[in-house]
Amino acid sequence: MNYQAIALQLAQNALVLLAAPLLLGWTNQCRAWLQNRSGAGVLQPYRNLAKLFHKDAVLADNASALFRVTPYILLACMWLAAALVPVLATDLPLSPAVDVIALVGIFALARVFISLAAMDIGTAFGSLGARREMLVGFLAEPALLMVLFTASTIGGSTSLITIVETLAHKPFVLYPSMTFAAVAFIMIMLAENARIPVDNPSTHLELTMIHEAMVL
């Protein structure tokens, strides 16, 4: 048993979990700078989480068990996906399971559960947001697969570890296919992270909300 690899895997999991709110705070701070505002600071998401952990869960009277377990399933899916992506090293205990098809499948599973939970309580906004979310997934996930398949043609495998190691050791070559794939990947990230022009997480207008509608 390679204890160093296990330690790196645990460190990567902890790093992803702890750094995620910091990335959100940095994104909000950049938006505030672009709007000529001072912003709340990059550590504001940590303060928001601290306040939320001190509050009780608010559930609808007709919420089923699916609605209650969805937050835990979403956290598990995102944490597992982050653990599969090689960040600190490629020789990790979960490396044999790092396949691009499995990675996209984890994202799809999380999307299905959050959409079902939004429709579970029967609100108009929840159903509206769930339908729009599934439409975005219907368009974004096949495109993400094509981007990853484009990268896999260079590595000769759908294993993300093999792709990363191949790109790291090969001389830098600007492939036209990889250029188009990078542009497509940026567009997919905007869609998956509910960013303009696909979605606006800070909106309160019915016509422009997707993720916010599911939250409501």
Explain the overall architecture:
By secondary structure, the chain is an all-alpha fold. The chain has two domains: 1-56; 60-215, no CATH class. It is built from eight helices and no strands. α3 packs antiparallel against α4. It is globular, with a radius of gyration of 19 Å.
Number of domains: 2
What is the element string, with H for helices and E for strands?
Answer: HHHHHHHH
Discrete helix count: 8
Low-pLDDT parts are none
User: What is the rounded distance between the termini?
Assistant: 47 Å
What level of helicity do the residues show? 55-70%
Task: Note the quaternary state here.
Answer: single chain
Portion in strands: under 5%
Structural class: mainly alpha
Shape: globular
How would a textbook summarize the main sheet?
A: none
The count of strands amounts to 0
Mean pLDDT: 82
Cα-based radius of gyration, to the nearest Å: 19 Å
Summarize the structure.
68% of the residues lie in helices and 0% in strands.
Name the descriptors:
mainly alpha, 216 residues, globular
How does the SSE layout of this entry go?
Elements: H1 3-34, H2 44-53, H3 65-84, H4 100-120, H5 124-155, H6 160-169, H7 176-192, H8 211-215
